[in-house]
Design brief:
Organism: Capra hircus (Goat)
CATH class of the domain at 468-729: Mainly Beta
Protein name: E3 ubiquitin-protein ligase TRIM56
Strand content: 15-25%
CATH superfamily of the domain at 468-729: TolB, C-terminal domain
Mean pLDDT: 77
Biased composition (Basic and acidic residues): 403-417
Oligomer: single chain
Number of helices: 12
Radius of gyration: 37 Å
Region (Disordered): 373-463
GO molecular function: ubiquitin protein ligase activity; zinc ion binding
Strand order of the largest sheet: 15-38-37-36
Number of strands: 38
């Protein structure tokens, strides 16, 4: 349930942006209220009128324009009353010069009023000391409340001044509105009461408010109930989406495990089923996002209308409440009468069924089925009602297996083999009494990924299938002290199961565990914005601008070296021995030892390639090779310690993208980031493409840099500062 909104205070209404026009962002002038209860300046609304209709800038509701124009919309007396109070409080700076008395000029012979020191809350006039004393001594004004002007300007008497405010009749200046004509629903002063409404039954304002307040409060309670239902539905949608993603992740794991037990000839079918799953999940997520957007929009509209009504009922004068009563009641009825009706069926959870058959081109080893989600309470009830049935059991993670022992109802999953079509048919026949909630894909769904995955190359021959990712965790890198959103430009392993994150935007080197626990930061020199980073023995090397720094864990600079100014960024990588650091500089690679001396320098491919290479990303392999992303050749290059190229890839598997960050696992497999297509592809140690490793389906959205921790955890940072961690499952496990 949504908790009932608390009544706003007068101070909150005066100090918040409630009195500001959302169009011109200035204080409201001639406030007019639309049927949706949003209030704007009359002149601002006139500029939005088009084609006989007007669209509210906040809730986007279109309302018809009255024949007389925007001037015919209801004047917001409630806002006018608050504005009068604000203007009276801000009527001049007392330190610059006290305002003049309002009564002195009215007395004969006085050309200008004296300095005001007090204010009459009933007359709304500033008074000098003499007039204030006389104000208390006349028959007509002796009961008026006269207060100190300084305290009034400071807001000490806001509540009291608000109580004594009276709405003025727009047709008879100086006359306060005192009555409500019941047949006409119009506010009247004494002059209005004597002419056209003389024979109409009229009520004093206080009595009219007492009669009509319960109806408005009942409508407001109904909208509060609608808000509770909207919030509950929105939370249910999010939970359903979370369950969908969790189940989809399990199904991905099932698909991968099943595919590892078959020959390479079935890999194409595995890719087809994963494409079906991606298509379903992405379509379901899109539909859920649309429903959530509509829910949030309707919830916001209802919440704002309820807040306005509650504020008017709490702070409005009788005349103000009655003047807005019709509009508020109409809007609350409209909102109360529009319950949320889901526009689409709940998300269907994918389930995996194994149907082994002949290993030919028409064989479908893997097949997806989808099951509609049920509320948690319904699932519990269904489990209790079916507790004694001999229904088809499910093994862990939703893979269905047939019954093995039908005599005593024992449920034992069959290990080592999949369900055959004959068993599947028998199971369905036995469960004919139950409603079949599963639907199978009879045709093939086309994958909706941006680019086709390249076919596995010859390097898979005799080595089984690809290493596969197992999701480990995800966490943000923005910390409370950050002034800007993180921009991760470098990652490296830092000790056991720890990573070091270079946040260029916040000029920080942050330490995180693989579980996402923040471990503090390594101090950097003043004014440095770390770009690429590498951890060495008890030291950290990083590039910033056109310099290479080596610092200890306390941030003390050991040495710095100037790099080429013609390169925007310089990639840094630690050598496998941990006592040297490599950096890419203007097409060649320089290697420095712990003392800062240049150990070696080479151009990938030799001097014949001088000026033809631009390694934007660089890493090293456990075998001692250098692996880099060459943006000038648009390729991935692998070279040995002497600079001889041992492998290079620039084929169609790059999808026309510039190669991004590179990482290498303990067996030498290369993981290359393709940021434009949201992928991480895998290559063998010599640079031959093997296939996709991570895609947008795994949560990649503009991946930026990667690193390998302990040779088996791939850490991927996204452009929004989020980090995903995947465990790399090798082929032989």
């Amino acid at each position: 349930m949504v908790s009932q909104g608390s009544s706003p205070s007068l101070l909150e209404a005066l100090s918040s942006d409630f009195l500001a026009c959302k169009i011109c962002l200035e204080q409201l002038q001639v406030p007019k209220t639309l049927p949706c209860l949003h209030t704007y300046c009359q002149d601002c609304l006139a500029q939005l009128a088009e084609g006989g209709r007007l669209r509210c800038p906040e809730c986007r509701e279109s309302v018809p324009l009255p024949p007389a124009g925007v001037v015919a919309f209801k004047t917001n007396f409630f806002v006018n009353g608050l504005l009068d109070l604000v203007k009276a409080r801000a009527g001049g700076d007392l330190r610059a010069g006290k305002p003049a008395c309002a009564l002195c000029p009215l007395m004969g012979g006085a050309s200008a009023g004296g300095p005001a020191t007090a204010r009459c809350l009933d007359c709304a006039d500033d008074l000098c000391q003499a007039c204030a004393d006389g104000h208390r001594c006349t028959r007509q004004t002796h009961s008026h409340r006269v207060v100190d002007l300084v305290g009034y300007r400071a807001g000490w008497y806001d509540e009291e001044a608000r109580e004594r405010q009276a709405a003025q009749c727009p047709q008879h200046p100086g006359e306060a509105l005192r009555f409500l004509c019941q047949p006409c629903s119009q506010l009247l002063c004494r002059e209005c009461r004597l002419d056209p409404h003389l024979d109409h039954p009229c009520l004093p304002l206080a009595e009219a408010v007492r009669a009509r307040r319960p109806g408005l409060e009942e409508l407001l309670a109904g909208v509060d109930n609608n808000l509770a239902e909207l919030e509950a539905t929105r939370l249910a949608e999010k939970e359903a989406l979370a369950r969908l993603r969790e189940q989809a992740s399990k199904v991905v794991t099932q698909v991968e495990e099943a595919a590892e037990r078959v020959l390479r000839a079935l890999l194409a079918q595995k890719q087809e089923v994963l494409g079906q799953l991606r298509a379903h999940v992405e379509a379901a997520e899109e539909a859920a996002r649309e429903r959530l957007g509509e829910l949030e929009g309707r919830e916001q509209v209802a919440r704002e209308a309820a807040a306005f009504a509650r504020r008017v009922l709490s702070l409005g004068r009788e005349a103000e409440i009655l003047s807005l009563e019709g509009a508020i009641a109409q809007r609350l009825r409209q909102l109360q009468g529009c319950p949320w009706v889901p526009g689409a069926a709940p998300c269907q959870l994918p389930q995996l069924e194994l149907h082994p058959g002949l290993l030919d081109k028409n064989c479908h080893l893997l097949r997806l089925s989808f099951e509609e989600q049920q509320p948690q309470d319904s699932k519990k009830d269904g489990a209790q009602s079916q507790g004694g049935d001999a229904t088809q059991p499910q093994s862990r993670d939703g893979v269905q297996t047939p019954d093995q022992d039908r005599e005593d109802g024992a449920k034992t999953p069959k290990e080592g083999r999949a369900q055959t079509p004959q068993e599947d048919g028998g199971t369905q026949a036995r469960g004919g009494g139950r409603s079949n909630k599963k639907r199978k894909f009879k045709g093939r769904l086309k994958s909706i990924s941006r680019e086709p995955s390249p076919a596995p190359g010859p390097n898979l021959e005799g080595s089984g299938l690809l290493p596969r990712p197992i999701f480990f965790c995800t966490f943000p890198t923005r910390m409370p002290g950050d002034k800007r959103a993180p921009r991760i430009t470098g990652l490296c392993p830092f000790g056991s199961r720890e990573i070091l994150v270079a946040d260029e935007q916040n000029r920080a080197l942050k330490r995180f565990s693989l579980n996402g626990d923040y471990r503090g930061a390594v101090p950097v020199p003043e004014g440095c914005s770390p770009c690429s980073v590498a951890a060495l023995q008890d030291a950290v090397a990083f590039s910033a601008a056109a310099r290479l720094y080596l610092i200890n864990h306390n941030g003390e600079v050991q040495w710095r070296r100037a790099l080429s100014l013609c390169q925007a960024s310089h990639a840094v990588a630690a050598m496998p021995s941990g006592d040297r650091v490599a950096v890419s500089v203007s097409g060649h690679v320089e290697v420095y030892n712990m003392e800062g001396s240049l150990a070696t320098r080479f151009i990938p491919g030799g001097k014949a390639n001088r000026g033809l290479r631009a390694l934007v990303f660089l890493t090293t392999s456990p075998q001692g090779h250098f692996v880099g992303s060459d943006w000038q050749q648009n390729s991935l290059v692998v070279c040995d310690g002497l600079g001889q190229v041992v492998g290079e890839y620039r084929g169609p598997g790059l999808h026309g993208c510039q190669p991004g960050s590179v990482s290498v696992d303990k067996k030498g497999y290369i993981f290359l980031t393709l940021r434009e297509v949201n992928k991480v592809v895998i290559l063998d140690p010599k640079g031959s493409l093997l296939g996709d490793f991570l895609t947008a389906y795994h949560g990649l959205e503009k991946p930026r840099v990667t690193t390998m921790v302990d040779g088996r955890y791939l850490v991927v940072s996204l452009s929004n500062g989020t980090i995903h961690v995947f465990r790399v499952r090798p082929l032989d496990s």
